[in-house]
Amino acid sequence: MAYLRNCWYVAALSKEVQASKIFTRKILDENILFFRDQTGLATAMADRCPHRFAQLSMGKLQDDCIQCPYHGLTFNQQGQCVHNPHGDGRIPDKAKVKVFPVVERYSAIWIWMGEPALANPKTIPSCDFLDSENFYIGSDYMNIQGNYLLESDNILDLSHIEFVHPLFSSPSVSAGEYKCEVEGNTIWSKRDIYNDSQAPEFIHKVFRIPQGTVIDRWLHVHWQAPAIMALYSGGVASGKNRSEGVETPGFHWFTPETETSSHYFFGISFPKAMGEEFEKIAAEEIKQLRAPFEFEDKPIIESQQRNIGNKDFWDERPLILNIDAAGTKARRIMQKMIDEENA
Amino acid sequence: MAYLRNCWYVAALSKEVQASKIFTRKILDENILFFRDQTGLATAMADRCPHRFAQLSMGKLQDDCIQCPYHGLTFNQQGQCVHNPHGDGRIPDKAKVKVFPVVERYSAIWIWMGEPALANPKTIPSCDFLDSENFYIGSDYMNIQGNYLLESDNILDLSHIEFVHPLFSSPSVSAGEYKCEVEGNTIWSKRDIYNDSQAPEFIHKVFRIPQGTVIDRWLHVHWQAPAIMALYSGGVASGKNRSEGVETPGFHWFTPETETSSHYFFGISFPKAMGEEFEKIAAEEIKQLRAPFEFEDKPIIESQQRNIGNKDFWDERPLILNIDAAGTKARRIMQKMIDEENA
Amino acid sequence: MAYLRNCWYVAALSKEVQASKIFTRKILDENILFFRDQTGLATAMADRCPHRFAQLSMGKLQDDCIQCPYHGLTFNQQGQCVHNPHGDGRIPDKAKVKVFPVVERYSAIWIWMGEPALANPKTIPSCDFLDSENFYIGSDYMNIQGNYLLESDNILDLSHIEFVHPLFSSPSVSAGEYKCEVEGNTIWSKRDIYNDSQAPEFIHKVFRIPQGTVIDRWLHVHWQAPAIMALYSGGVASGKNRSEGVETPGFHWFTPETETSSHYFFGISFPKAMGEEFEKIAAEEIKQLRAPFEFEDKPIIESQQRNIGNKDFWDERPLILNIDAAGTKARRIMQKMIDEENA
Ligand code: FES
Ligand code: FES
Ligand code: FES
């Protein structure tokens, strides 16, 4: 299965790319380097000198340009060679490094891996609770040795919480109402649980509902291509209106590293209006969230990949359950977009 | 070269698969899990959930069923899904895990990798000295990075003892009489040494013959497909009748893990009639036997595999010596069986 | 790209192959073993027994013969089996190990990987400053995970010194005059720097020119197939005649291990006439030379290989600069020789 190229992928969390440092990451099988210019603007370019293919990331970043470590050709933010220290110093026409459009938004750097002329920042998936002016954001990164679609399957079907994360769950989760709704090119996967008397302590604490109270809960996931998901997790004492409850939003974004490995960016946010202490709380909560993803989801997803190997997911004839509706829908939308792109 | 599928392979030593625990092993390139039910009966099934291919071995064993770690589908010993915690709980027709026939015999678990309907326990290779009611068995396991046929070559040609295990040998071993006899679909590789005055101390001790006595020795290997070998090693003071001597039987069983790696099960036995202390002796002697296999045979076999790589053994045009008769015969029988199976 | 086979490759430094020991190295994808006979003469043979492909290097070297570790076939220096300990002891016609012509010269062992009948020691590249009767030689070895042609590119274009080895350089290096001259089937890559007032302290010391003196320097590299290079590095106070200056010669030899990895042999020499203390100086200086090669060149060359992967260098369309003239010429000569060999 090919990659969708004409779309925005998350390349890095903003905080991963620091001033005066070269950051590297493999995305869609390409080695890419990232840096910020003196105004803080992020740049992404192939980590490969057009001369003899040395990794530019081993070179020097100076004056917003990258100097190749090998023979010193120097490239600016547009990938254009601006200095050839050799011979008459003439700069050959082809002395260009591939540059990728990037946009910084939602505390992340988004990259366009396809035709640069088509890169329109307006098509970056929207995520209202991550506007960094109004929200404190806690975020983290993890590498997963599994295809990114195994990850959208994972987030789009939260019935797995009961089995994979028993401490965060109750039997009522998989018994809850499950709906998959398509909204344009996006998908909603909604799980609604009513009258849960077995919710774990943890849940009561997050939603600030006294232990012993029967509660209504919801887990609503919104998917946008390629694998950009928002998870709205909420709770309220049963009988009350949802608007009286608490809803905590989180994000789960995946970017293919290779066909069999992914970059996983995840996080949560709190409105700044809640108070300054929530900056610290966001940072602390995200640390706690990492553990279940790292020690519970990741091993399972990597075991799926081991069993699938290099074969095609559908060729392996997976069993279809009702819980797969949203994940399957996401796979189909991606396949359609890829087919159209390659048509 | 394909694998022979319709035959019994040794999957594990009985003691490797413990009550209430899931055991895993790759056999003929397939990840397989093993467990015992509450009566102790062993079960083998694909370590791969039919739903989304998670490794079932990461799940839970309860009530003789395996619950998938990911979404909780539960499978019984027949591989049949017996519980679907999702939606209306209906169990899809295809919700089945591949189950492999197994039989426990000779302190080992034997697995049938082919067409289940053809699995007949009567065709398990026979091994009279391993009847665990009448014998104390000492056994061990080792992984070898080499094709299993390199291993049957090894055991079927004991001339290598002189070079590979000099401490256990004397020059008379390769000078001994060598015979290869075919008996139905099985092979005998017999090495008989007469009037050996140079046998190492070790040999005199095992066969309880005073140092200095000239001895007659024999090493008789019996091969059965796919790579099930019994080695009868005996000795007696020269001039006496063999029946007055001592014979210690051992087994060497090999199962393909992949085309280039094998599972090696080996052991010895003592008749219970010899006394209870022989339970401990069996366990101790097998520990000592491990060293020469691990540090002398294994490195050589793995060096063969490195030199052969992924090429076909015969295509590499090995030199044929008289000592190869039995190993070559075994390779031919296996090839014939594989060809017939795929015809 | 295939290898050139009918040519002399450097297999090892003389000192790497010690008396009474078996040395192994993979060359052009073949595992080869080396030893010295009792007169000190070096022998090279395939590290692979013709019987069952065990690595002969795990066996014994005795009486100038190699005994296979597995079944004891014994091979002499001509690769001929001279002893079969089995059966009637007859030696099969095909009981031969492939032997490679070798010649010891310039403190190294040269190997001929092609048709043995064509191996003519007169075609070993000449290297006058390595005659070990008249020179003290300091030499060392390093494994590089990169194709050997990336290495000839490296040595044939010393403009990289300025960027890769800033401590050994001055901006004047890449500004220097650069010439590529073809001399028969060999190449000269000459870099001449005039009136350098910025040469590092190190340079002044090596050429024994007081700090502060403006100097003329030259870096002349002579290439012979397959990747045998001599580097003449000299310096003299500007205005004086070069013959009044100092010139230190060094060698850089590369041999393919695989398509993507190389053996790197490098060294320097001092005329014995300079005095006995130069034996020690040669040994010490080579230790210091190792660091820049290991920590500065090697990582860059390996990054090139990572970016090229298994693709063809030219298919990746490298940018051509004037500094590539000699490296490109060397690649073309090699390609022509390979094409002719396979015609
Ligand atoms: S490889 Fe980058 S300048 Fe030569
Ligand atoms: S992967 Fe096993 S139940 Fe879903
Ligand atoms: S493998 Fe070398 S003698 Fe048998």
Automatic annotation (TrEMBL), chains A, B, C:
Gene3D superfamilies in UniProt: Naphthalene 1,2-dioxygenase Alpha Subunit, Chain A, domain 1, Rieske [2Fe-2S] iron-sulphur domain
Stretches assigned to the Rieske domain: 8-111
Gene Ontology MF annotations: 2 iron, 2 sulfur cluster binding; metal ion binding; monooxygenase activity
Domain of life where this protein originates: Bacteria
Alphabetized UniProt keyword annotations: 2Fe-2S, Iron, Iron-sulfur, Metal-binding, Monooxygenase, Oxidoreductase
Classification via PANTHER family: CHLOROPHYLLIDE A OXYGENASE, CHLOROPLASTIC (PTHR21266:SF19), IRON-SULFUR DOMAIN CONTAINING PROTEIN (PTHR21266)
Annotated protein name in UniProt: Vanillate monooxygenase
